[in-house]
Structure formats: structure tokens, C-alpha cells
Amino acid sequence: MDLIAEVSSAFSTPVQTLGHLSYVLIIVSMMMRDMSWLRAIAIASGFVEIVYRLWFVPDPVSVFWEVLFIAVNLVQLALLWSERWRSRLSDDDEYFIATALNNAHRSKARRLLAIGEWQLEPVGARLTEEGELPQYLTFVADGTIYIERQGKMIAACSRGDFLGETSFMTGEPASPDAVVAKPARCLCLARQARHKIIEAATDLR
Predict the structure, then answer these.
(1) Residue of 187 and 84 predicted with greater confidence
(2) How many helices (H) and strands (E) does the chain have?
(3) Measured between alpha carbons, how far is 57 from 55 in angstroms, rounded to an integer?
(4) Is 179 helix (H, G, I), strand (E, B) or coil?
């Protein structure tokens, strides 16, 4: 009972509660999995402690270190937001990650995306030609591509399909032609970067 009484007395006045609040906020911040929230709540804790140490229990040393603590967290928070803003993914990137990479972790998926290049292919463009080695592994995000052999359509590829994956892996020439029938938006991964692509894809597992 004495222990309970002592704990209760520690929160008996608004000033005492304010003094404890900064520590409560620090504990809460440590429970955050998102770094933005962690640093934001830590900054709030610092401001509460400054108020407490300036007006209620003066302590210039604590105030100095709390100001430094807030400054460091503000800088880190700004860097975090800047990095997230610069690395925002397009709708096509998000669709590729969800469809082709099974919603892999974004930081790892960006490595693969950085190797490729999004291109808009016009009607009539040939993405693969029969008997020739495709220069790209192509992911279709939008549009329609006809697969033709000797001028006759035998299949069609559309949103979410890959083109040239067999040739990309085996090094064999393409057996059919791939001709754009409806303007297509594609992620093109160059054969020259094959080893980098395979390494990046392996890292996603």
C-alpha cells in the first residue's frame, strides 16, 4: 500500500504530471514501428520537458540537452520525409510490384525498377521479332500486344503479362513476333543488365 501511495503522490499535482508526461511520450515513441511517428513523438516529449524545466523545475543543463535532442530529431525527420518524397513510386511501379513481384518490400523492389525504363510503345511497334534475340524483358502495364507467327495472330498479351522471358533466361531467339496492337506502356529491362536483374530479383526472395 505504501508503494501505491507513493506512486499516486507522484502524480498528485498538474506540475508533477507534466514532468512525467515527457517520459511517457518517450516510452510511447519507442513503441512506434514507423520512424516518422517515433521521431515526432520524441520531439513532443522534448518540448514538454523544456516547458517543465524552464518554468516549473528550472534546470538549464536539461533544457540545453533537450533543445539539442529536438534539433537532431527534427533534422532526421526532415531527411526521412525528403527521402520518402524523392522515392515515391508511380502507379505503374506499384502495379509492377504488386503483380510481378508479389508485393515485395519497396526498398528492394526499387533496385529492380531502377534497372528498367518505362516506355510508351506505339501501335505497330515490334517488341520481339521471330528468329532474333530480344533486347529487352518487357512487362506490360497497359495496352495490347499481338503474338504472331508468320503474320498470323496466335495469342495476345495485355496488362500484367511479360514478353521475352523465355529468351531472356535461355538466350535463345524469339520464336514469334510481338506486335503492339493498342498503345502499350511497358517496363523494359535490358538484356545487357541481365546479371543485375537476376541478382536484384534473387534479393527479393
Answers:
(1) 187
(2) 8, 6
(3) 6
(4) strand
The per-residue pLDDT for 84 is 72
Beta bridge partners, 156, equal 146
The pLDDT score that the predictor gives to residue 119 is: 95
Helix or strand run (H / E) with residue 95? helix 91-100
What percent of the chain stands above pLDDT 90?
A: 53
Residue 136: other Cβ atoms inside 10 A: 22
d(CA 56, CA 134): 74
Strand runs labelled E in 18-164? 117-121, 126-128, 136-149, 152-157, 162-163
Other residues' Cβ atoms within 10 Å of the Cβ of residue 106? 14
Residue 130: the pLDDT is: 87
With the CA atoms of 104, 110, 114 and 116 taken in that order, what torsion angle do they form, in degrees rounded to the nearest 10?
Answer: 20
- Rounded distance between C-alpha atoms, residue 10 and residue 175, angstroms: 80
pLDDT, one tens digit per residue, over 138-161 is 999 999 999 998 888 999 999 999
**101 vs 16, 93, 145, 193, 202, CA distance in Å?**
53, 11, 22, 18, 11
pTM greater than the 0.85 cutoff = no
